[in-house]
Structure formats: structure tokens, C-alpha cells
Amino acid sequence: EEMTNGQQTLSGFLSNLRDGWFDELAAEFDDEVFSEPELLRDVQPTITDDNKAALTAILLTLFAHGAALIATELALQGAELTAARATITATELAGLVAATLTKVANDVRARAVASAVAAVQLGLNIADKIRSDARDSSTGYVSRAAGEATNLSLARGRDAEIAARSSEIQFLVYSAVLDSGTCTPCGEVDGKTGQKSELPSVPNPQCEGGAQCRCVLIAVRKPD
């Protein structure tokens, strides 16, 4: 549920950026750009400080949700716990923020360039072609980027809370979803128990879905 909700929130944010970036590039592409290749290279979507701050706020919230889940799960096992302890700073999330924004911006630029080239070849208005193709094109790449950033943020929160409560945890259980979307590498280690160093990290580096991996490490509390 947290993964789904986080992906929906993040998809909405990134979709709005996507639309704005297509409009920005549609305004910048013109015949002069295509007459000088070095100018074409310089046309890029603008990633602003406000974009970074807004995405950071979303990922900080997801981190906190991931940490809180560990505390909740241990409490459901009968542990008497305080609220989540793990914290993270905006600086620590800067790499994930930059990677997520760059990934979507690069996809937008590649699609805008393709539309602009087609417009030049067909004798169409470049800006109109970019906007028209943007409206009709798939947004799957936005959903993928949102899913990856969501799962990574939740996993970081869970990992940080597990580390913060290591003295209260007896062992961990690797858990895959085990539905039709579960890949073989993840399914094969489902149910494996041990300490964190003995289990695959999550998202699982071997997962066929990459950072969209939905596996989690479940903490089992020490007996009283």
C-alpha cells in the first residue's frame, strides 16, 4: 500500500514536470537549432532548485513512512516501542533526487528531439509537433521512475530503522510478494532468514525489475 500510494504521488509530481518540460523544449526548438548542431546539444529541460526541493520533500516523507512501518510491524509482534527513530537529511537524498529528475528529463529531451526531427523532415511546425506527440505518447517512463524512487526511499527508511533498533531485533526475513510480477531471483530467496549482512539487500540487485523491486526485509523482534 505504501509503495502504491508513494508511486501515485510521485507520478503526479513527475508528470507535471514532464508536461512543463515539453512546453519548454517546444518553445526552444526552431530551425536555427537544427542549422547548428552545437545549439541542439545545449537545448535541455531546466531542473530548478524548486524541482529538487519539492522532490526531496516527497522522498523524505517516503523515508519516514518506511521507518514507521518497521516500528509498526515490531509493535504488532508484541514489542513495546516508541515511534520510529531513523532520520535522514536532504543532503543524503540528493543523489536519488538528481538521478530521478535527470532520468525523466533525459527521456523528455529524447522524445522532444525525435519529434522535432520528424517535424523538420515532414515540413511541420516544430513546436506543434512536439506538443502533439507529447500529448499522445506513453508516460510509462514517468511511472517507472516514480516506482523506482518510491521503493528506494521506503527501503532506505526500513533499513535505517532496522539499524536503529538492531538491539531489539533477533533476525530478518526476506519477503517477496510472490505474485505474477515476482521475478525468479526474488522468488528464490523468499523466506530466507538471517542478519542483514546474510540477506540480499532490497531492492534486490538481482531483481529483473531493477529498482522497481517490491521485496522487503521483515524484522522479527527478540523474545522477552
Describe it:
The protein is mostly helical and 224 residues long. Helix content is 61%, strand content 7%. It has eight helices and three strands, in the order H-H-H-H-H-H-H-E-H-E-E. A three-stranded antiparallel β-sheet has the order 2-1-3. Helix 5 packs antiparallel against helix 7 (140-164). The longest helix has 29 residues, at 94-122.
Structural class: mainly alpha
Global Rg? 22 Å
Structure annotation, total helices: 8
The strand count comes to 3
**Mean pLDDT, rounded to whole units?**
91
Helix content: 55-70%
What pattern of helices and strands is seen along the backbone? Answer: HHHHHHHEHEE
Q: How is the main sheet built?
A: 3 strands, antiparallel
Distance between the termini: 30 Å
Shape by Cα distribution: elongated
Low-confidence stretches: none
- Strand order in the largest sheet: 2-1-3
Question: Approximately how much beta-strand content do the residues carry?
Answer: 5-15%
Q: What are the key terms here?
A:
single chain; 224 residues; mainly alpha; 8 helices
Map the helices and strands:
Layout: H1 2-28, H2 31-35, H3 37-42, H4 49-76, H5 94-122, H6 126-136, H7 140-164, E1 169-175, H8 184-189, E2 193-194, E3 216-221
Antiparallel strand pairs: 1-2, 1-3
Task: Give a short summary of the structure.
This protein is mostly helical and 224 residues long.
